[in-house]
Amino acid sequence: MKQHLIILISLSLMAINLSAQSEKKMVREGNSQFEDGNFSDAEIEYRKALDKKPGYYKGTFNLGDAMYAQENFEESGKLFAEVAEGVHSDEQKAGAFYNLGNSLMKEQKYKESIEAYKNSLRLKPDDQDAKYNLAYARKKLDEQQQQEQNQDQDQDKDQDKDKDKQDQDKEQDKDKQDQDQDKKDQDKKDQNQDKKDDQQKDQQPQPQQISKEDAQRMLDALKNDEKKTLEELQKQKAKATKSMKTEIDW
């Protein structure tokens, strides 16, 4: 019974050892492909190793390197963050934070990359590469913030220009409306004047029509006046004749 137990334990240890050798072999194969510049093939080998042993430090870290080399910076950042949060040595975690900072830098996430480099230096204070990259990330962050500020100022200027143009357009529209209103008022004034003239024409006295009887009476009156006038003239003429006659006689 004891012999069977010893054999089973030995077989189990052999299986574990073979499994460890298998995942390590896959990582080594991935490293070979990586060194030859075959990053996609290296990725395949690293993923195989992680399928055999999920969370395997070397497999995860090196897969992050392969993704970074293929410019998949978002994926590489996730892998390095996973390593940094795992239970590993300070040196391993410092390396993971450093690579995380590099991935974030490529994504222009300078503020986040600064924190990653700081975490790396907390674990490995003498890392000159981390110090250099930290300073560079701070410089890029300042440039980014300055650029955003300039863009905001340019946007404000554009908005002011648009507002000025809108005000100018409104003023032009108002002038046009005033001109149109003046024209309408003038047209209305002319129309009123024409109407007034027409009314005055309508109000001018028209020749009155008289009846035939009235006309006859007026004619008779004129004749009577003429008769009276003629009689008066004849009287005056008679007086004048007498005077002259009297003078001749003597």
* Unreliable parts: 4-18, 203-207, 238-250
Please give the CATH architecture of the domain at 15-150: Alpha Horseshoe
Briefly note the structural class of the backbone.
mainly alpha
Q: Per CATH, what is the topology of the domain at 15-150?
A: Serine Threonine Protein Phosphatase 5, Tetratricopeptide repeat
CATH classification, class level of the domain at 15-150:
Mainly Alpha
Q: What is the multimeric organization of the chains shown?
A: single chain
What is the total tally of β strands? Answer: 0
Fraction in helix:
over 70%
Anisotropy-based shape: rod-shaped
The H/E string reads HHHHHHHH
Query: What is the number of helices?
Result: 8
Cα Rg = 61 Å
User: Can you tell me the CATH superfamily of the domain at 15-150?
Assistant: Tetratricopeptide repeat domain
Mean pLDDT: 79
Strand content: under 5%
Distance between the termini: 213 Å
Most strands sheet: none
